[in-house]
């Protein structure tokens, strides 16, 4: 079974349906704060989604986190209760929306290349 990132709510994309939750998760991923995102990716019940979402929202309440996100052009303002309620309704219907949001967020994580001096050889690279 293929999982569509567009499923639910008339085909509207997840970013369109949950713009503030997406921003929160991308903010955390951009700072390599993966804990709440990891928990959300494994949340199979409404209670687990609530706990993971709380952790994510709590993490971005600090000014330093929001400032770092703003510097990365990720605007985090807050999440309206209606947006949280809509997400939980989807979860109650058995949607995997929480896992999809986590997957989307993790793509915002920065990839840093190791410096060539002192770094381990790349997988598949010839050693000689």
Mean pLDDT over the residues: 81
Main β-sheet description: none
Beginning-to-end CA distance, first to last residue? 45 Å
- Give the C-alpha Rg: 17 Å
Judged by helices, strands and strand pairing, the structural class is mainly alpha
What is the overall silhouette?
globular
* Count of separate DSSP helical elements: 7
The low-confidence runs, each spanning 5 or more residues with pLDDT under 50, are 1-11, 115-128
| Domains, number | 1
Residues in helix, %:
40-55%
Q: How many strands in all?
A: 0
Beta strand %: under 5%
N-to-C SSE series? HHHHHHH
Give your account of this protein's structure.
- The protein is mainly α.
- The chain has one domain (9-106).
- 53% of the residues lie in helices and 0% in strands.
- It has 7 helices and no strands.
- Helix 2 (19-30) crosses helix 4 (46-59), helix 3 (35-41) packs antiparallel against helix 4 and helix 3 (35-41) packs antiparallel against helix 7 (97-106).
- The protein is globular.
- Mean pLDDT is 81; it is low at 1-11 and 115-128.
């Amino acid at each position: 079974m293929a999982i569509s990132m567009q499923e639910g709510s008339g085909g509207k994309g997840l970013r369109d349906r949950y713009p503030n939750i997406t921003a929160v998760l991308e903010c955390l991923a951009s700072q390599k704060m993966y804990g709440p995102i990891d928990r959300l990716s494994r949340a199979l019940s409404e209670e687990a989604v609530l706990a993971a979402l709380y952790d994510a929202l709590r993490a971005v309440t600090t000014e330093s986190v929001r400032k770092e996100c703003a510097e990365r052009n990720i605007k985090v303002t807050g999440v309206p209760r209606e947006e949280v309620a809509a997400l939980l309704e989807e979860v109650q219907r058995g949607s995997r929306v929480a896992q999809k949001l986590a997957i989307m967020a993790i793509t915002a994580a920065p990839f840093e290349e190791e410096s060539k001096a002192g770094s381990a050889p790349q997988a598949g690279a010839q050693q000689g």
